[in-house]
Structures are given as C-alpha cells and as structure tokens.
C-alpha cells in the first residue's frame, strides 16, 4: 500500500472518529443542560407552591380568629325579636350590621301560613340572604385588614413552622418530579438564619454552580421585614449526571477505538518503514557481498598462474587479499545475523566466563590494521584489575567491534584518527569499558535517537559511508541482554565517548 493511501485513510478515519466524539460530547452537554433546566423549573415551581401554601395557612389563621371574635360579639349582643333572633355585630375594621335569623319552626309555620302568598315568601328569602351577605362581607374585610396590618408583625417561626415547611417542600418537590434529599433554611433580609436543617451549609445564593434556590416568603410583607426560604440539594450533580450515564460507555468505547486505530496506523507506518529499510539493506548487502567475493575469486584465479606461484611476494600479497576480503565478508555476514536478532522474540545466548581485557586486546590488535590504513592509530589502556565477566563471547566481540567500526566511518578528514579503548574498575563491582574517538561527533538532537533501529544521524553520509542504522541498535540491545548499561557523551565536531558498564562475574 502506498504511503499516500495510508495517509488518506488515516486522515479520513481521524476526522470520522473526531466527529463522532464531538457529536457525543455535544449530545451529552445538551442532555445535561436539559436535565438541569427541568430540575431548576421543578424546584422553582415547588418553592412557589410552598410560599402559596404558607400564605393560605396564614389567611386561614386570621379567618378562624375573626370568626371566633365575631361569633362572640354577635351572641353577646343578640336580642330576641318577634318572628326570629337578630344578631348585631361590629368588626375591628368598623363594619357593622344586623343578621336576623328566624327559628326554623317559626319559618316553617310562616311559610305554611303564607303558602299562597308568593310575594311574602320571596321577601322573606331575600332578607335572609341579605343578612348572610353582610355577615360574610364583614368577615372577609376584617380578615384582609388583619393580614395587612398584623401579619408582618408575627414571628416567622409562627407564620412558617419548620416542620410544616419541610413537609410542604417534600410534597411539592415530589409532585414536580424532584425526589431527592434537600437542605433548607429561612433567613431574614440581612441573611441572618432564623432556623435551618442540621446539615445546611450557607452557600451564597448567587454562586456559579446555581445550587442554591431562593424563594421569598410572604412577598406582600414590607421589604425590611421580608424572609426568604433557601434550599439546596447536596446530590444535585449526581442527579444531573445520572441522565448521561448510559452515554459514558459509548464515549469510552469510541475513544478507545480511536486510540487503537492511531496505534495501528503507527504500527503500519513503522512496519512499512522497516520493510523499506530491510529491502534497502538486502540490496546494499548484495552489492557489499559482490566486492569481497569478486576479490577472492580473482585471487583464486591468479593462483592458477605458475608465475604467480613461483613469486613469494605475489603469494604473500594474494594471501593478504584473501585474508582481508574473508574478514570483510565475515563482517557483512555478522551484520545480517545482527539484523535477524531484532526479529527474534527469544534468542539463545551462550554465556561464559571470559577476561574482558584479553578479549578487548585481541579485538584492538585485529582492528589496528584497518585504523592504520586510514592513517590513524588505536591505543588501549586496560587498567581494570578484575575484568572477569559472564557474557556471550561472540556478542561481546561484536559490541566492541561495532563501536570501533563506527569511529572509523565517522572520522574527520582534517585530523588523523585517534581511537582509545580503556577498562577500569568501578566501586560497585562493575567493569567500565570506554571507547573514545576524535571524529565528527553527534549533535544533541541525535543523541537520544542513535540507539533506535535503522536510525542514522544526518552527518552519516559526510564521508560517503554506507550504513543501515543497525550497529548501535544492536550494541544497545546486547548490552541490556548482558545486564549492562551504555551511554554516550559527544560534542559535535569534537568526537564521541561510549561508556559501557557490565557486572563482574563475582557480582
């Protein structure tokens, strides 16, 4: 699949998943807003209902009080008149009147005697209704005046009892679909609490979360004597969020699918890059194999010449060519084997006890000819007194050889190459191996990536050197396998220093 196709699919899928997430988020926000609006409206209707019920209770209180007073006054000032009983009353507001009610027997007798006189019967009923009207009008006027003049002077505890308010709140909230715990308090105009529930917290009424709901009690009272009912719901957020609980798994699954898709795309790009690198590696290695094979083949053909066999100098030269090209071919084969190490989930290592000083001395002597070929020199300072380590000898040799080979590849043309290999003892029973050069160095941006597979620094082609970005990745992996550690110190243009630490055999 082409890289452009992968990018197009990636962009389309990312936009699709992003759109789904945005739609789900918007839907969740709308659900929360709608649920909160419904909750707020239900609570406000409930509080208004509580306020109305308390006003009705107060009206009933004054009505009963005035009825008792009027009845007492009426009965004390009553006089027996012919044909019935007449009640005289005067209310506190100055309303006066007479209410005449005839005895039932006398009315029946009168109605019986005057059964044929419709006009007399009509007048009797009219007088009775007129008396009842005057009585009710006077009673209502008295109640209204009492409410206006006396109600605001009554203590709020008498006008709105806490148990009554709690019961009214509970009933009204349930009727409006808000069935959840609540806390409330009654405060005066200055915010002083008159009474409150045990768990009430004095949250500002204008807080940003809109958790506190406020309702004026007895709104017809003078402003300076008004009281307010404050109510809030401790579990409001849980109540609101419960409306979108079913959306959370859907949102989580969509987000998880997005992450998985991104991960798959990253793996696809990585595998594509690795495949391209491997193909380039195989192509380059094919050409690298041809050179030593051609040299060895040419040397073998020269050995068939009798004159060549008779010349010791030519024989020595041919032998040297065959030896060098064989080493070169073996090195290329080891590169292929190193690459295969990265594709194995498990590998078998033949750990054995070796003397690191002796192994490094042998490697340096073998590598000296290659360094001298470029006009450089290599020295070793094997100062470690205890250098016995438990490693795989082949991989240990490849680690040191790769570091030395990189130093040769990335040398500077303006100064002779200088390579130094040292060993030293560390206080924690570990061996330190340092490979240092005076080459072109490594930029700071590349230092963190040089151990990545197939990664090559931008200066890698400065000397027209072919590489595949496997050497240092292999070195880092093998050092970790051998339970060691590796780090690099480098300044661009001044050379590099690779520091390896390995546990000693006794550790």
- What percent of residues adopt helix (DSSP H or I)? 55-70%
Helical run tally: 13
Mean pLDDT: 77
Order of helices and strands: HEEEHHHHEEEEHHHHEHEEHEEHHEE
Inertia-based shape: rod-shaped
Radius of gyration: 52 Å
N→C terminal distance: 51 Å
Q: Helix- and strand-based class?
A: alpha+beta
What would you say this structure looks like, in words?
- It is a single chain.
- Helices cover 56% and strands 17% of the residues.
- The two termini are 51 Å apart.
- A hairpin with a 4-residue loop joins strand 4 and strand 5.
- It contains 13 helices and 14 strands.
- It has 507 residues and is of the alpha+beta class.
- About 7% of the residues have low confidence.
- The strands form four sheets. Strands 9-11-12-14-13 form a five-stranded mixed β-sheet, with helices on one face. A four-stranded antiparallel β-sheet has the order 5-4-7-6, covered by helices on one side.
- Helix 1 packs across helix 5, helix 1 runs antiparallel to helix 7 and helix 7 runs antiparallel to helix 9.
